[in-house]
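Bit of a strange request maybe. I'm writing a small parser for structure token strings and I need a real example to test against, not something I typed by hand. Could someone generate the tokens for this chain?
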Amino acid sequence: MSINVQSERTRDFWRSSLIAASRTALACIIVGCITLYGPTSIKKQVAFPAFAYVAMILIVTNATLGDTIRGLWLSFYATLQTVCPAILCLWIMGPTRLTTASTSLVLAIASFFIALPKSTHVVAKRIALGQLVIIYVVGYINAEQIHPIMHPVHVAASTAVGALACFLAMLLPFPHLASSQVKTNSKLFAENATERLKLYVKAFCAEDTTSSQALISQAKCLSVKAKKFIQCIKSKQESMQWERFLIKFFRPYCKNPGDRFQEIETPLKGMEIALSNSQVPVTIFGEELKDGMDRIEGEISQNLHQLRKHMPCETPTTVPESTNGHVMNFLQKLEILPSNDKDLPSYFFFFCMKLLHSQSRAMTIHPNPQKIDKQTPQTQAQQHPSNHNKKHPDGLSLSWILANWATSLNKERLLIALNCSLSLGFAVLVGLYYSKPNGFWSGLPVAVSFAAAREATFKVTNVKFQGTVIGNVYGVLGCFIFERFVQIRFIALLPWFIFTSFLQQSKMYGQAGAVSAVIGAILILGRRNFGPPSDFAIARIVETFIGLFCSIIIDILLQPTRAASLAKIHLTKTLGALHTAFSSIDLLTMSKAELLETTKSIKIHLNELGKFVGEAEAEPNFWFLPFHTQGYNKLMGIFTKMSDLLVFVAHANGILEEQIRRLDMMGFKDELDRINVDVKHVGNVIANSMKSFQEIACIKSMLVLEKDLTKSGKTYDIELGKPSKDPRLDEKEIAKNINVFLDHLKEVFEKIELHEDETEMKSQIVMSFSAIGFCLSSLMKETKEVEKGIKELVQWENPTSNVNLHEISCKIHALYD
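Reply from user aminoacidic:
Good idea to test on real output. This should exercise your parser:
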């Protein structure tokens, strides 16, 4: 079976890569046919075929039909931003008045205003910056031959040819729709979820630890694939918005299918967490309970089977019969509270299974009606598809422009725009001084590789330069092989597109290196009137090196703070977000939505931390201490798990909201307050630990801390440290807190008298409170793991010191209290 799965994955990998390569090759051939064999009137207007290829690559990479429709709009918007002002500028100044310095200055100023707006899509910015280089630098190089109005028009025509070629390549021989990819990945995810559910249930019912661990390992392998399916679905959601005008007559439109599948993924992840903490065989497991689990597992599988046939926003042809009776029978077996903390993982498994049942059935019966776009065609025609995500301009009105600029004026955006401006200006300045005829090649790589956020400078620059070199070498070899067959040299590009499609998925080069390699090859094989290929390739390599070198220097000057330092800063911010989340936990006053909002804040900080960790990993050490990637990755994994556990607390609280109100009306307010106090106490214990970890992570080094403490003249006594200042937790304290919570829960249930028809209410309360208890226990255990991770990082930064977190915490409080 594993061999068949592996061969299927290999076939899918080859199929997707070949499809992407063939679409790119088709777009390239369309550009070549227009620029080399098209009518003279068209070829005269497309005076820069090289830039037509560049625009084509910027749009067609990993594109679907929706992406190319968006690319048409973005290229049009970019052209309006550059061509209209350039015509006015060249008409007033005159190309003959341009000098090397003035050309670089005008280019730097124009690129600053192109890069500044936050809402403009990065593809539009890259196209616009590339157009600026061609307009001004080539205008200066060939000042005596160009017309101040027709020259920018020729650049616009070249851009239009590249964009149109992408659109045609996605239509022929059949449309390459994002919605089709989403539907395919939706089916694959539903199959994956069904298989994992079966494995989890078998692992839970296993009679020995060995077989249970084997089943869990199989499910973990499938969970990695499930993440890829969801990522693919989410990445195509924006493209689907652009396709909705074409597919709205055939099927309903769903804006966020990835979010709906994430709702299915969450309880499956919880089941995996429960199994990793449960003991096998499960002591509370009986034949009746096993039969109920089998029934619910079958019902969930049936619901997921419907999702394999239909996307989550489509109405299924058949709706599964109501199976609430089976659920009721299953819940009635869970009226007894867990006797101790060892039973909590099993109850949490039941909770996740019930949650999965509810969500899968909701997706099947209610096909996301609130997320189906119900606008009329007239309303849709008046609104732009980007109204929902605001990632790119949705109009050219004065009010939108003013609003766009108002949101752009912040420090981060100004720094990015200044970086782009100086990098492009100095690259062109140095490139023109080195070789005026080839000076624009130093600015073009910088322009078309513009990044809207901070990148791993040295790594990205390295792969871009390597990609350019190997692309140029391949282009020269292609020209040599087809020296006598110039008219059919496009054949040489087909194997190159296949190779770079695989190169793009490699860790070594990625998309930046692959795109540079593609552009490097097609600009030689698709060029005309540039002299011998070998001379042209060498000139391009030198100019590209000049441009990328200038970009590195500007990055270092404008962003001197190392990524490793920024990763440490964001580590403390993440710990601060966790402290805020745990200190605010309150089951009686906080709603499910409020709890989920706190987890979103944690995930935002985690995403930022992950970006800087990835950049720091690729950053050269020079004379610095090597970055401890493994330690940071370990902590991010723990933080992610803690965030997931908070999500389950929110779901359990959402179920309890109505039940707590009913219990409150029944006169159990004091008992509920007592349980809530237990929950808040555990939250405060974890929050205090996170606060201490944050303070410890902020110190520069232990030597600096000792010096500051000596200068202040203050002393500390580790034996007199307050318990709240000690970030350490032990197993006894964890078990004590959870057992107190369970004892108070039992006291409440001993007093509750419910009618026979309220059995489901009682079982839901049992499951929800048990799930909260399990999450609190797991969160305290994860806090212990955070303690180990922080200690490891501090030890890494202070290799000659003996690290004691409690002692460090006492010194910090003695210094600042």
